[in-house]
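Any chance you'd type out a single protein's sequence alongside its tokenized fold?
>
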Amino acid sequence: MYKRTLVTTALPYANGPVHIGHLAGVYVPADIYVRYLRLKGQEVIHVGGSDEHGVPVTIRARKEGITVQQVVDRYHNLIKDSFQRFGISFDIYSRTTSSIHHKFAADFFRKLYDDGKLIQLTSEQFYDEATHEFLTDRNIRGECPHCHAEAYGDQCEKCGHTLSPDELINPYNAVTGNPLTKRETTHWYLPLDQYQQWLEHWILDQHKEWRPNVYGQCKSWLDGGLKPRAVTRDLDWGIPVPVEGAEGKVLYVWFDAPIGYISNTKELCDANPDKYGPWEKWWKDPETRLIHFIGKDNIVFHCIVFPTMLKAEGSYILPDNVPSNEFLNLEGDKISTSRNWAVWLNEYLDDFPGKQDVLRYVLTANAPETKDNDFTWSDFQARNNNELVAIYGNFINRAMVLTHKYFNGQVPERGELTDYDKQTLEEFVDIKRRVEELLDNFRFRDAQREAMNLARTGNKYLADTEPWKLAKTDINRTATILNLALQIAANLSIVFEPFLPFSSASLRQMLNLGSAEWDNIGSINLLEPGHQLQPATLLFEKISDEAIQAQLDRLKRIKKENQQAAWKPQPVKADTNIDEFAKMDIRVGTVLECEKIKKSDKLLRFTIDDGMGGRTILSGIAQSYPEPDKLVGTQVLFIANFPPRKMMGQESQGMILSAVNSDGKLVLASVSQQVRNGAQIG
């Protein structure tokens, strides 16, 4: 049995704001778990911080023409403020540029170095001759060998494949665009292969309870055979390698960042020794349970690389569980910081003030615990309006308003219970055990569903018993019903506390209930008869169609901007000559009629005045022109000497010319001024 729990959350890169993918994958489930443990009275700390080294921050600095320190200062403060406003209850949220972290990480490396736990290897790496720098994987771009989209040297964001720079087709410097060569460079490596057997036993034999996605990814890596992994990089931003002759090299960000969990704990404990004790008890005492909350892209580092670092050092505990989530997509497309395809937390908090719990609820209800999931604004609105407002909020409001109306806002006496009362109570007396069992096993989505089922029970109870009608004929029965409804409300204020802390605090204030006590869940005596309630206020309010449409319009605008930014001309076709071109009889004609072809999503039928008696041409551009009648009177270019051919049972006498725009839509080719129908292009 553990005495205490240390919870860490993946350190977000300080190169941009936090988005809903981060929240759903890491921070909301971690916060639920920490709040739950605190409610149970357990000793727990929640450690977080910004990852301020590595390539993403240097890329951002170059793009904006400012220093890297200015970038990380800006985004660290923005991220920290957003987390505070959203209610993520860190005990400390620090940063990897702190002096404490720099010294701690350097000392950690030096101990491994002095103990002979690292190996030194020389290899060829990509080099930019123009800027005189070795490039890290993230600083390299090229064509993905799998889907042929533009990709980074470590991953293709379009198809999701993990890559190495050597796999890219025509790699280049992502910042300058310069072509790359290769040069030899020397680095220090963590010899993961030497820990293969130990890792197989520790993970595959001793941690079969880990989530299938975590266990499966670890097994895949172990089955493939581990290789030494670099812990240093050729960069000018980061923690200098504390070894003579290592000038111009820094600690690799994935060696440096997880050490931040330890250095941040030390910073917390050194500043609050009476409250937290020495930092070593949180990292070196076997009675401490270590839990890492991460996204699936960090599984390897937290389950294989970091544990190997701790094992090599020799004095640290190892993670007991790593409840990693899958990815959350946005409106059917992968969330991407570089493409601005995200719902940013700071913008959400500004656009939906006071609705932190709505987003927490939706992200938990749709949590990607076992597979990738999708966030849509329509689902966000529906869950708020149909669940939080219509079920939970409606129940609380009815119970409070009726108590104020008939009993002056005081909890009424409870009389004899009917069979239906007892049946209702039976539905939630076991709520504490069910929610605990789910939370203990990191099943946050199901645990929140159990909490909402209690609200459903209360809402149904009031709807079935109709105390507003009974009050006219049986005030005693009304008193019993409202007493039980208020007891359920008090239970909800506790059981929802880990999930919806803001509304739970508001509900307890309305109920005049003190601090939440987890052990009280399931009691029907939380509010004594005569207990005075505060005035009723709405826990939740409906979200309008206009508010949702504004978010959809924003995403539509971003998608269009991304399409335009990603657009590149198609490669030039094979050489031809003037004689081949001269064979094409391209002419100008005016559209007389244009309409969709029935049973076809693509074809439009054009009736053209070609100056030669007229013709009909079918063209597959219907999706680009949803209102074809508006093309009437437009002059278009067409090939007049294509032989007629049948499409959808109709004859087409030529081909209309069009160009593909950056958004993928077809645009009809025309002339810059009015010309005679039938005029040739040549």
Notes: The longest helix spans residues 377-407.
